[in-house]
UniProtKB/TrEMBL annotation:
Keywords: 4Fe-4S, Electron transport, Iron, Iron-sulfur, Metal-binding, Repeat, Transport. Pfam families: Complex1_51K, RnfC_N. One of its GO terms (cellular component) is membrane. Residues 83-224 form the NADH-ubiquinone oxidoreductase 51kDa subunit FMN-binding domain. This is Respiratory-chain NADH dehydrogenase 51 Kd subunit. Residues 2-62 form the RnfC Barrel sandwich hybrid domain. The keyword Transport applies. GO terms for molecular function: 4 iron, 4 sulfur cluster binding; electron transfer activity; metal ion binding. The keyword Repeat applies.
């Protein structure tokens, strides 16, 4: 079995290979280093085997009789140095190197907010591990508090996860660690939404949580950080939710410690195999995931694999309403093409603000209304709208689009239908 390790799995510069073809490597062995003068992250082999090939973009290893209970240990001793050596990055999707995020100590106070929101629907591997191993999350958070000199830790998760909340409350013994319950809407896991809701500070789109004396860190990142510091384990495994049109239809599987570099198809096989009919394979969640193929490898930031439902035929002409919190313009265009629809207009949520090379919402999850945008798409000749809006924005679209005789499609429809989840439309507060 071939394992593929892309040299760019994170924000920053690509890693630099330090292995050559035909070289034998071990699970946990460093195979690519971050450039010394650049932002980046190390990459380790998740398997025993022989290097098949090395290119400018990836390393391919032929796996050979790996004992997945073992790995080569990290060499550093200082916690932050271990985090850097381990190759740990944000595992919630962005992939920002963790050693940089935690690299500057708070002078006084400071809050570490653990993002356990499980923000995207269907994805559920973070909550699963919290329920199984709450103490490891708490221990990891304590390490982060020590590294950053933060005075308080808050574990943020949706209030609907009553069992996880109960388990955490019973496990927390430190008065400096607490729980904050989030609403069950999207995108409560966006880091500025967490700072707003848990700390009462609404940051401008261009600002990071540090502007509010806070750091937001993904729950699995905290688990893996504890592994690096306590067990000296490099980042070589990943928890993944696999769901959708599998052989066991409308199913959701939680897979723990899947070795990085394994292909999407092989991971799906681990969950029982792919069904005979599906619309697309999504890597990530229903809102922000991207279309992928079965031969693509699992990387550090992979959180979900979803075999979505077949695409519903769309109208001849469709308008796109792009939200900073969901699928981007290119993703909506891709979906529209799969629906057989011609895009006749593109509008953006009025709160979507351009920050550097991406859109940021001015107030994530709080919608000011979308009537003007929907009317503009109607005027452009749209016979329906395809949207990527958050829960609240979708609610406002549904307050006007049907009155204009515009059916509404959502970027998440295929994923949610594949597991028999209710589609995102109008809701009541």
């Amino acid at each position: 079995m071939k394992f593929v390790f892309p040299l760019k799995q994170h924000i920053g510069a690509a890693s630099e290979s330090i292995v050559v073809p035909k070289e034998h490597v071990h699970r946990g062995q460093l195979i690519a280093k971050r450039p010394e003068t650049s932002l980046g992250a190390n990459i380790f082999s998740s398997v025993d085997g022989t290097v098949d090939s090395v290119s400018e973009t990836e390393i391919i290893i032929n796996e050979e009789n790996t004992d997945f209970s073992k790995y080569e240990s990290l060499k550093e001793t200082d916690p932050i140095k271990l985090v850097e050596e381990s190759g740990l990055v944000g595992l919630g999707g962005a992939g920002f190197p963790t050693y940089v995020k935690l690299g500057k100590k708070f002078e006084s106070g400071g809050v570490i907010a653990v993002n356990a929101a499980e923000c995207e629907p269907i994805l559920s591997h973070n909550i699963y591990r919290i329920e199984k191993e709450p103490q490891k999350l708490i221990d990891g958070l304590k390490i982060v508090l020590e590294i950053t000199n933060a005075g308080k830790g808050i574990i943020c998760l949706k209030g609907i996860h009553t069992e996880a909340i109960k388990i955490l409350k019973n496990a927390i013994k430190d008065p400096n660690i607490s729980i904050f319950e989030l609403e069950n809407i999207y995108p409560v896991g966006e880091e500025r939404a967490i700072v707003r809701d848990a700390l009462g500070v609404l940051l401008d789109p261009e600002l990071l949580p540090l502007a509010a004396d806070a750091i937001v860190i993904n729950a699995e990142t905290v688990f893996r950080l504890r592994e690096a510091v306590v067990e000296k384990k490099p980042l070589i495994d990943k928890d993944i939710t696999v769901a959708g049109k599998l052989k066991e239809n409308a199913s959701i599987h939680i897979l723990q410690d899947i070795p990085l570099g394994k292909s999407v198809g092989e991971v799906i096989d681990t969950a029982g195999g792919l069904g005979t009919e599906y619309g697309e394979i999504i890597m990530g969640g229903p809102f922000t995931g991207k279309r992928t193929t079965l031969d693509v490898p699992i990387v550090k930031t992979t959180g979900g694999i979803i075999a979505a439902e077949n695409f519903m035929p769309g109208p001849q002409k469709i308008g796109l309403l792009v939200c900073a919190c969901g699928a981007d313009k290119e993703r909506l265009e891709e979906q529209a093409a799969s629906m057989g629809s011609e895009v006749v207009g593109v509008e953006y949520c009025k709160q979507a603000k351009q920050v550097k090379n991406s859109l940021k919402c001015e107030n994530p999850g709080k919608c000011p209304g979308q009537v003007e945008k929907v009317m503009a798409l109607k005027k452009a000749g749209a016979q329906a709208v395809l949207i990527s809006n958050c829960t609240d924005c979708t609610n406002t679209v549904m307050s006007c689009a049907p009155q204009l005789k515009l059916p509404v499609y959502h970027c998440t429809d295929g994923a949610l239908r594949s597991v028999n989840y209710k589609m995102i439309r109008k809701f009541k507060n």
